[in-house]
Structures are given as C-alpha cells and as structure tokens.
Design brief:
about 200 residues; 6 helices; binds 2-acetamido-2-deoxy-beta-D-glucopyranose
C-alpha cells in the first residue's frame, strides 16, 4: 500500500468534501424557505431585493471558502506521474480558463439577482437568457465551476482533486434535480397568471 492515489487519512479531504456538498444544499434550503415563508425578506425588513443581495454575498463567500478548503486539501494529497505530463498540465490551464469564462460570463448575462436565485424572491427575469454562454450549455455556471475544479486538480497533478471534482459534479447534478423543475414552475405560474389577466381584461 505504498503511494496511494488518494490519502483518505487527511482530514482536509473530508472537510473539502463536506463543504462541496454543503454549499448547494444550503442555498437550496435558504431559497425554498424564502419562496415558501419569505424568511430572508423578513430578515431584511421586507426588502426582497436586499434579501437577495444578502443571499448572493453569503453564497459567494461560501464559494470562496469552499475553494480555499479544496486548494488546501490538495496540498496534502499525493501527486500522480500521469497527471504531471506536459499534456495534462497544458490541458489544466485550458479547463480552468474556460471554466472561469463560463462562470463570469453567466454572472454578467444574468446579473446579481438572476445568478443568485432571484426567482425565489419573486424577482423574475423578463425572458429566459439565450445569449452567450447560455447558447453553449444550459447550466454554464455549474459546468464552468466544475471545469475550474478539474483544472485545479490537473494543474496540481492530484488524483484526489479529480475525485473531489466528481463530487462537485454530483452535488450540482443533485442541486439541479431540485432547482430546474422548481424554477420552471415559478415561470410557468407567472405565464398562467399573465394569461388569466388577459382573459379578464
Ligand atoms: C454563442 O454566442 C457566441 C457569442 O455571441 C458565439 O461566438 C458562439 O458562436 C455561439 N455559440 C453557439 C453554439 O451558437
């Protein structure tokens, strides 16, 4: 058992896994509590816009903490020679860069409230965004973030990073099972209300 791919005895690995799972779980619970009980809006004295900004700052900060824990965790993990080849190393830059382009351009296209679950606060977009990067993939924020994790894993040559990236992908996939039908229904509801409004006027 010399040279394991992943050193499971490192607490940092488990802390990183926990924070990867915690973040999307937290924002889904917070957003649903807002939608059903207006919990965050009440916290911000009835101002939904500020409440959404508050959630945005919280999610953004949790993301920075999660990324820092991940990078720290990788430092104590073994490297693998296969991941240290020039090809993989060059690939890592491309993945990290394209991942960041997807994340930053989605935020730019959606704005703060669009990015950070504004729909749950009743702050709806006028129309679905179809411009770049939404013409490339349906979930550019999630895919971009996953690519950045993979880029970091390959850049540092750590198989543990690849495993944690798989967990990121899994956590986002589960998050989307909850989020996608929910937001679709929020917009469908508005559509029904608009149509009902048309009939009575
Ligand atoms: C998406 O939009 C960008 C920028 O407008 C464009 O360069 C790109 O070719 C488009 N991609 C697809 C798949 O349509």
């Amino acid at each position: 058992m010399s040279n394991p791919l992943i050193d499971f005895s490192q607490p940092g690995l488990w802390l990183s896994a926990a924070s990867i799972i915690f973040n999307p779980t937290f924002w889904n619970i917070a957003a649903r509590q807002e939608y059903h009980n207006k919990v965050l809006t009440k916290l911000f004295r009835g101002n939904s816009q500020y409440a959404c900004y508050g959630l945005a700052v919280t999610i953004f900060s949790l993301g920075i903490i999660r990324d820092a824990i991940y990078e720290r965790a990788l430092r104590t993990q073994p490297t693998h020679p296969f991941l240290e080849t020039p090809f993989i190393h060059n690939l890592s830059y491309g993945l990290f860069l394209s991942g960041n382009v997807l994340v930053v351009s989605s935020m730019y296209a959606l704005g703060v409230t669009g990015t950070y679950l504004g729909d749950y606060f009743g702050i709806l977009m006028d129309a679905p965004v179809t411009s770049f990067p939404f013409n490339m993939t349906d979930a550019p924020m999630y895919h971009g973030s996953t690519l950045s994790f993979l880029g970091t894993a390959l850049w540092s040559g750590k198989p543990a990073g690849v495993a944690l990236t798989a967990l990121v992908w899994g956590a986002y996939t589960v998050a989307r099972w909850f989020e996608d039908p929910f937001t679709t229904e929020i917009y469908a509801k508005r559509e029904r209300e608009r149509n009902a409004g048309k009939k009575t006027t």
